[in-house]
Automatic annotation (TrEMBL), chain A:
Domain ChlI/MoxR AAA lid residues, every copy: 246-317
Domain ATPase AAA-3: 53-182
Location of the region described as Disordered in the Swiss-Prot/TrEMBL record: 325-349
Name by which UniProt lists this protein: MoxR-like ATPase
Coiled coil: none
GO molecular function: ATP binding; ATP hydrolysis activity
Family annotation (CDD domains): AAA
Amino acid sequence: MTTQRSGGELTDPMTVDEFRATTNAIVANIEQVIEGKTATVRLALAVLLAEGHLLIEDVPGVGKTKLAKALARSIDCSVRRIQFTPDLLPSDVTGVSVYNQETRDFEFKPGAVFANLVVGDEINRASPKTQSALLECMEEHQVTVDGVTYAMEIPFMVVATQNPIEMEGTYPLPEAQRDRFTARIAMGYPDAAAEYAMLDGYHSHDPLEDLTSVVDGGTVRRLIATVRSVHVAEAVKRYAVELVTATREAPELRLGASPRSTLQLLRTAKAVAALDGRDYVVPDDLQTLAVPVLAHRVIPTADAQLARRTTDAILSELVHRLPVPHDRGRSPYDTRPATPPNSFYDRRG
Amino acid sequence: MNSRRHLGLVAGAATVLASAPISDIFAGWSWLFEGGLMVAMVTGAALGARSLRGRLWAQLLAMLAALLIGLTWLFGEDTAILGLIPTPDTFAQFGKLFALAGEEVQKSYVPVPDLDGLLFVSALGMGSVAILVDLCAVGLRRPALAGLPMLAIYSVPVAVYVDSLSPIPFVVGSIGFLWLLVSDNVDRVRRFGRRFTGEGRGVDVWEPSPLASAGRRLAVIGVLVAVALPLAVPAMSAGFLGEFGSGDGLGQAGKGPRGNGRVDLFAELSGRLKQAGVQDMVKVTTNDPDPFYMRFGVADQISGGGFASHQPTGQPVSDDLPDPAGLDLSAVRSQAATARVEITENFAMPLLPVYSAPTSIRGLDAAWSYDPGLQIVYSQRANSAGHSYEFDYVRAEFTPDQLRTAPTMAASDANQRQYSNVPGVPQVRTLVDKLIEGKANNYDRVRALYDHFSAKNGFKYDVAAPAGTSGAAIVDFLNNKRGFCEQYAAALAWMVRTAGIPARVAFGFTLGGAPDNGVRTLTNRNLHAWTEVYFSGYGWVPFDATPSTYVVGSAPTAWAPDVDAPDQTPDGVRPSLSPGTSGGPDGPGGPTRDPIDPEGGLIGPIVVDDELPTWVWVATGGGLLLFALLITPALRRTMLRRRRGVRAAVAASGSFTEVGISAADLTMTVVGDVDTARRQAHAAWDELIDTMIDHRLVVDPAETPRATVERLISTALPASVAVEQARLLGMAEERARYAPVPLSAERLTPAVRAVRRAIAGEADRGVRLAALLMPPSVLLRWRNAAYSGFTTLSVRMSRVSDFGKRVLRPLRPGRLMR
């Protein structure tokens, strides 16, 4: 088995100011196309810098694909777009080995996934077999075809969109695949002012056409290296674990978040912290990320579903209940009982 | 509306129930009718005002008007228009009734008959209480407050009866109060909506809640404890409460039948002496050139409350009265005389004043009897007012030498047995033993005790002194040395009895002013009490211990001379009772100091009174302890703040590195010593959080420093200068917790101060005061500590019990048998 490695190494992290300037430029570039969605745009960028994948889920026509394409265009790197349909085959995604008459050998034709940015449109329209073709490359950043493993370039990001409304003829993403997306975001409708501005902007032509890249792949690699160097205090790591553990213990959730989500949560938090101009992660970062990073991975219980409780609501409530970490151990204002809950309180029932 | 109507009716009924203690005052039940009518009218007026949706003031006005109309109806007596609408005359009538009630209070003894004045006052009182109860319970929805006016009713019999009171009226009253509370709470719970039991069964509107049984049990226990606890404390009825009575020192009040021949002489005495104005009571003419006091009553029994009289017994008055008890007239010089007495309307008692000892009385009908033992003329049914009569009497004159020969009586002697028993009071016993030490005979002993009450020893006359003749009151009097005839007479009698010599207290009139054309006019100011001591063979010999300077018409005798006379050198007078019991010339009663003998107090030994009563110490100690308890949280808070301030101030030393924090737009320095900087940031942050808790700002443990500060700025510091400082504190704490390099602490202390000032400036005064005196942060921390301690304990206990279950249960015999 051979491994082919492509893309650059992650070296030469930037300073805080340089990082801020670069990322602000990217965000401003994307905002030429997507009006009034700064938080969403920054989150998408954070996912890119956290080496994760993004699932954009919303009703049609709110700019899901536009965001994905704008992000791709802002970075001067290879971009591929896959329109998922029920008849799409796995080999269309990963690539296929073709017999070359001249060399008398099988030659690997890379699929659409071999790019820095892969935009998967309407991912839930593809059959599970095709969807699962994405699995390996998303998590392991590699594709194995005919016993040969091909590594993906850095950065590598899958931006998938899906439509939650019209579910007929769709294959909902399996749990394993959902877990591979670092964050799920909803675009939401623009506010009136942004929509009005959009009318002007899109009056004559699509501004996406005018979008030029502001960074190249090397710069993105440097950004990623910077994110990797962000400091995470022990207390914050503890908090991340507590947060994820809380989803597993929450009575309203049938399935909690996975250990992979803990890792991705912290990684994204680092990216958010860096975007915010900090070289350290604060619990606020984790709190803002709890819903986008964790909500799509958990499954509510039947009771919670019947009560129309969305996972978003359950998770934000969880965040508001969990005391923030303290580098001095327990907070003096924490009024919870000091003893583990399985000793005394369990017996009362 | 319906619920308020119900509550209003309950309030009225509860007021009537709470009036139950008044039944102890009145002999009849007219008060209940009239008072109940007042309550009903007030309640009706309140209901009417509420049904017309009147505001609270309108309800109050309606109730006041109803009370006024009701009183006019019942007590207006033709002064009102149509008998209901009050006129100025009506108010004059009310004023008269008030004055009448004042007199009746002074004259009457509980239980009183249906006297107009007192009925008026009780109806007015019940009506007023009904108004207050209705206002508190229905108007303000604070039924607990309604307990106070109800308690005011109960305090009336408590003030009147010193000794003890039947608990039944209290229980009835408390049932009324509890009823009110229950009705209010049922109504409150009802307003939440429909109620359910734990099984989901609906609970009817007025059905008690399944959870109410605990409250019921608590209420019953509370009432039981309130009734039983005072019974378990023996001293409650004896001395302590007696101090608060208004001269009604009779012990047997409320117990047993009260014949007319038996009145509360002490109450009469002090009431009349304190009464404003002078009333003529008795006009007496006698052919005796040197008469002694006229007597009409005797108190010869000692009970818990002090001296009291007993039921007199004797024959109807006739021309020939029995000889005075125990007096051998042949042994002493005696003077026969005749006196004529006219009683005015102001002296209305079932007793008649006579000189001692009458031999025959003329002009009285068979309603009057003579008790030869007490030597008093009494009646079971007649009243002395308006009587006039004539009597012969024999006045005996004793000499000290004669009295010295009187033998000590045998212990079996009836007089000795009856009149020398006295409750042992150690202080009195000590004093008496000291005074009579070395005295050979009874007379000298009595003289030694008598002479003790001299100005030289610091005794003063003070009609405003607390009344009462119980043991405790006697001791107080002997210590304070302030009192009037009642205390002097009772104290001397008590001491003489303590010395083992029979003694009693006699009541009557002094000689009064100078006779006008032979007629002595005796007024209420001449009412007096003195001591009589029994000498074998001489009978009852009077000793008047009250300082004669203050007694108009006092009559010093050869055997009991004026102890304060200048040439008098009384033997047996000790300089002081015992160390530290001197009242001292600088005592609190300064203004009442003898104007004639201003040095009177100075002659006695000046002993600084350093032995305060115990209760003063207890009260002071309790007060200090309370103060210490109250101030502890504030002190703790101050200490915490100082410690944090000091900690933050240490920062000044150390090496700094300039680092720009552009996010906060604050140029900050980072201390070389990272740990110190972290600690300082934490101290400043803790102080900020404590300040927020102190000022009732919400602190959420699930909130990050950044979020906490932003919330603080948006809620408590709108447009304040301290916004930047607050952000700085949040940033410092955030970096101290999560960043590799913390911020410098040097600007944190002033920042904390500025934020604290800003928060306090935004808070209202009550919150600020509470933050200063009772800082909630400290209390919360203590509570948490107590709570977690309790939880730990519970867990340990449950572990022990688990262990018991797991290990010990299998060993139980019952299990082995199975």
